[in-house]
Recover the amino acids of this structure.
């Protein structure tokens, strides 16, 4: 099977229920201990969307392929870190995935920037995320996008036979 090469990125948009199959496939295809703390998904697969993960929390990036078709390039989940009113001004990136064939083409950056706009639209003044310490590429991208390390939980996860730090990062949406 040939993998479609991307020609151009379409504007990031909110997910819709019809995206479920493509997002589930993308999520499984991009699973890695570089960013995942849950075991690799196994069939039968859980639904991608559910009561805790509704379509409204996801932004999707699609790309036009070399043949003119459209393919899912990535997604970002943007949610509230807690249900508490006292931190309703904060949104948290709770997942970011980019298709292998779309890497290094600006997909993650486009999703991040769309998340800032969406978080502001929701009334947030701050955005946070958690990233595994060994995911140096993601950490560099987040730093380039203005995120600062705000805390480190040393050895928080045991993955692939070693302990991995959980790095907490955040940035203002008002500056």
């Amino acid at each position: 099977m040939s993998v479609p090469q991307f020609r151009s990125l379409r504007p990031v948009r909110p997910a819709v229920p019809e995206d479920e199959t493509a997002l589930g496939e993308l999520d499984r295809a991009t699973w890695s201990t570089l960013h995942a703390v849950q075991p690799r998904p196994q069939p039968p697969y859980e639904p991608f969307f559910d009561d805790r993960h509704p379509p409204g929390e996801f932004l999707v990036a699609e790309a036009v392929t070399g043949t003119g078709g459209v393919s899912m390039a990535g997604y970002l989940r943007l949610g509230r870190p807690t249900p508490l009113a006292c931190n309703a001004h904060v949104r948290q990136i709770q997942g970011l995935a980019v298709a292998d064939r779309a890497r290094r083409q600006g997909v993650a950056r486009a999703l991040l920037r769309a998340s800032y706009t969406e978080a502001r639209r929701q009334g947030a003044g701050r955005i946070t995320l958690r990233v595994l310490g060994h995911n140096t590429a993601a950490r560099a991208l987040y730093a380039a996008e203005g995120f600062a390390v705000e805390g480190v939980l040393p050895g928080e996860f045991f993955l692939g036979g070693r302990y991995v730090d959980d790095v907490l990062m955040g940035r203002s949406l008002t500056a």
